[in-house]
Amino acid sequence: MDIPVLITGASQRLGLAIAKDLLSQSVPVIITYRTPKPAVEELEATGATTIQADFSTPQGIDRAIDQILSVSPALRAIIHNASDWESESEHTDYQQLMTRMMQVHAVAPYRMNLALSGLLTKQPGPADIIHMTDYVQDTGSDKHIAYAASKAALHNLTLSFAKKLAPKVKVNSIAPALLMFNEGDSDAYRQKAINKSLLETVPGAAEAVKAVNYLLSSEYMTGQTLHLDGGRLLK
Question: Which of 51, 113, 182, 218 has the fewest CB neighbours in a 10 Å radius?
Fold first, then answer.
């Protein structure tokens, strides 16, 4: 029996690209999404199982876990990609902002890993958890303070779960800087972003797809982070 990969937040950008790539390899995929989009229907048409889920509340996480348990008796991997990008400049209630960032980026993966790890260990082959973190986990961010802190927490969960779930489950992170632009980004912003890395490029979602495939195929990597930043940290 083919065992599915669970990808959270797979209705757009990196998560969508990862889901499409796995489906093209005939790997069954379960995705979660927060808001209905044409991409969700597209994934369903190509065979994905889809679950609407909002990880910003404990009740939303509960419902997602129950639905995942109901649709598959085992999982090949869990890719925690669901994310929320909010800054302090957009809020006056900083308590609410920090709570939301931690809920989506740390609490949801923490609870889902504990609740679903049995599905990873039930199947006979290798199993993986991949946390999609962020370049700012190591640098901080003066404009996205709560976001950066929550991604650093997710990075630390990688270390703890790698210890807890070894040797059956490999647990790693992918920490990208900017991999792809939004349609409305100005030419000035794009050039400024390109200049921030040593390699002076924004490579697109394919770079994250390659990183996921590498981690899924690796037999000797756990508790590690793949830094996809084009040398930005050095610059």
Answer: 182
Bridging pattern class, strands 77-80 and 49-52 = unpaired
Q: Tokens 């920090």 — which residue? A: 98
Those residues whose C-beta lies under 8 Å from the C-beta of residue 145, and which sit 6 or more positions away, are 88
pLDDT in tens, 116-131: 999 999 888 899 999 9
pLDDT per position as a tens digit, 6-49: 999 999 999 999 999 999 999 999 999 999 999 999 999 999 99
User: Please, is 215 exposed, middle or buried when counting C-beta atoms within 10 Å of its C-beta (0-12, 13-18, 19+)?
Assistant: buried
pLDDT of 102 strictly over 70: yes
Buried (b) or exposed (e) across 125-134, using 16+ Cβ within 10 A? eebbbbbbbb
Those residues with Cβ within 8 angstroms of residue 62's Cβ, 6 or more apart along the chain or in another chain: none
Task: Give the residue numbers annotated as catalytic, written as ranges.
Answer: 147
| Spatial separation of the C-alpha atoms in residues 80 and 104, rounded to whole Å | 10
| Average confidence score pLDDT of the chain | 96
Rounded CA separation 32/15 (Å): 10
Q: Are 9 and 78 in contact (CB under 8 A)?
A: no
C-alpha to C-alpha distance for 72 and 119, rounded to whole angstroms: 8
**pLDDT band, very low/low/confident/very high, at 91 (cuts 50, 70, 90):** confident
